[in-house]
C-alpha cells in the first residue's frame, strides 16, 4: 500500500529489432545519461535512469524523473525532447515496465502466427512486431501479427503505434474478442482453419494494479467491477485457446490483483479444458524479475462487503451477480494438478512498478468441445485457389464481420457446448455456398451476408491487390531494376477506380489471410506504403517515387537508382533542403551526374575502420533533380539520424528559431514603417486635393435645372474641365 501511494517511475523501451537500437542505447548511455550525473535541481540530486534487470540486452530503462523536473534544467529539457522525438519516430516506446512482461513470456519466433486479442493502445503489439523482425536481413518474416480491439476508435491508435515500426506483417482488425471469427487460409489449394502459434490475451480488467498512474481508481474502485468483468474475461480466454494450435502458447494477463479476474479465470479454463491445457512453469525465463506465486484459495465479496467462501452459500438473489466459476475448485486433487502457483503475481513494492498478473498456458490437445469437429475441406485449386490467383483484380472489402452462424463453428464462438459432426458439416457447407456466390464475379469478394453483427465506425476503403498483368507495374520494375524475386503479388492499393496514388505491400501470409476472409473479418489497416504517385516522374520513365516508410523492406529488391554516400553527405542531405551537386563529395557527385532525373535511393554503409562514426547502415529516399539532390525523410526521422551522427539538433533548432523570430520582427517593423509612410502620404494627398474636393462639392450642389437649361455650355466649354476633374478623382 505504501508503494501504491508513490508516483510510478517513468519507463522507456528501445525498439529492439531496428538496426539502430544499439546506436540509440550508446547515445543514451554515453551522452544523455552522463549529462544527468551529479545534476542538482531545486537542491535535489537527479537520479540517473537505470536498466530493468530482467529485460534482455539493456533495452528497457526506468527513471523517477517527472515532466516538471524535466523542464527545469536545460540538460533535462534536452533529454525530454530526445525522448519525445525518438518516440514519434518509433525508435523508443514509453511503456510501463510490467506491461513489457507478457510479450517476453510468449517467446515469439519470426515464423509464428500471432493473435493479440485486446491490443489497443498497442505497446505490447509493438513488442511482438519487433520479435518477428529479429533478423533485420529478412524483409518478410514467415510469421505475422493480427492485432484486434473491440473499440473502433482505439483501433486507429493501434494503427498509429504499428505504423511507427514499418512492418508488412501486421494487420489491425475490429472485433469483439469474445467472439472473434475463426479465420481460414489456403494451404496447397485447400482451405484450412487458421490456428495461431502464439496468442496474447491481455483482457479488460478493473485496473486496481494501475493506482499509481490512474488516480481515479482510488475513489472509483469497487469489488463489483471484478464480478461484472469475470464472465467477459473467461469468454475471451476461452475463445483464445480455441484458436490456439496444439503445442502453442497463450499468455493471459491483467493489470488487476483481484483473484476473481486472475486465478478464478485460469482455474475455470483449466477445469473445462479436461487436460487439454496446462500452466507452463516460466520461473526461469525472466531472470531478475521478482514475483509471488499464484494463490489457490480466495473468497468472493459483494459490493456491500458480504463475503462468500463457497458457491452453495450464495443466496438465489445473488446468482446473477456471482457465478460458480468465481470460486476456487473444491477438489483438492484437481486443484493440485492445476499448478496455480505457476501464475505470476507482480506486486508494486517488488521492483517499484504497477501491479500485474500473468499466466502462461500451453495447449496439449484440442479443446474437448472441438475434438469431434471435422477439418474444413474446401474447393479444389481449379475452382477456388487458381480462380483467385488468376483474376484480373482481387478486392478485399473491409466490412463488418459475418454473424456467428456463418463462421466455421457456430457454437464454438461462445464455447458453451460441444459441436457435433452434423452441425459442423452444415456450418461448413453453408460457408462454402456463401463463398461460391461471392466469388462468382471475377474473383472480387462481395459484401458480407445480410445477417451480420452491428459494428460501428468509419467505412474503410477496400484492399485491391495488383494483378500480375497490370500495366502499372512494368515501368516501376524497369525503372528500379527490381530483382526477379520481388513479390509483386503482395502489392495492393486502397482504391478500385481512378488513378492509384499509393502502393502498399503486405507479406505473403497476410495476403493469404486477406483473400480468404473478406466476408468474416473487418480489417482496419494493413501493409506499409512503398511507392507514392508523382506525376512529374512520368516524364522520367516512372510515375511512382519511393516512400521512406517502406524503404527498408523494399531496398533488398532494388538494383538501380542507388547512390552510395558518405556520412558528410548524409549530414548535408538532412540539414539542407535542395543541396547542389557541388556540395557533395566527388564520388557522390560523379554517381549523381551519371544518373537520370527521378526518385533515388541514398545508402550509407558504416566504416568499420572508423569506430567513432555511425556504425549502422542508413537507407534514405531521395530525388535527383536537374542540379540538386533532395532527401524525402520525415522531420523526426531526420532528427533521429542527425543525433546518431553526433549533430546537436536542439541547439541548431534554437538558433534557427531565434533567427526566424528576428526575421519575423524585422518584417513586422518594415510593415509598420510602410503603413505609417502610406498614412503620411494619404494625409498629404488629402491636403493638396482639398481645393479640388471643394470644387467638386460645388459642382455637385448646382441646380439640375441649370444643367438642363445650358446644355451647349456643359457639353462644349465645360467638357475638358469635367474630364480633368474625373481624371484627378
TrEMBL record:
Q: Where is the composition biased (Basic and acidic residues)?
A: 711-722
Top-rank EC class of the record's enzyme: transferase
User: A single GO molecular function, which one?
Assistant: mRNA (cytidine-5-)-methyltransferase activity
Origin: domain of life? Eukaryota
Catalytic activity reported: a cytidine in mRNA + S-adenosyl-L-methionine = a 5-methylcytidine in mRNA + S-adenosyl-L-homocysteine + H(+); cytidine(48) in tRNA + S-adenosyl-L-methionine = 5-methylcytidine(48) in tRNA + S-adenosyl-L-homocysteine + H(+); cytidine(49) in tRNA + S-adenosyl-L-methionine = 5-methylcytidine(49) in tRNA + S-adenosyl-L-homocysteine + H(+); cytidine(50) in tRNA + S-adenosyl-L-methionine = 5-methylcytidine(50) in tRNA + S-adenosyl-L-homocysteine + H(+)
Q: Where is the composition biased (Low complexity)?
A: 399-413
Compartments where located: Nucleus; Secreted, Extracellular exosome
**InterPro entries linked:** MeTrfase_RsmB-F_NOP2_cat, MeTrfase_RsmB-F_NOP2_dom, Pre-PUA_NSUN2, PUA_NSUN2, RCMT, RCMT_NCL1, SAM-dependent_MTases_sf
Q: Which GO terms describe its cellular component?
A: chromatoid body; extracellular exosome; mitochondrion; nucleolus
| Family in the record | Belongs to the class I-like SAM-binding methyltransferase superfamily. RsmB/NOP family.
**UniProt-recorded name of the protein:** tRNA (cytosine(34)-C(5))-methyltransferase
The organism encoding this protein is Vombatus ursinus
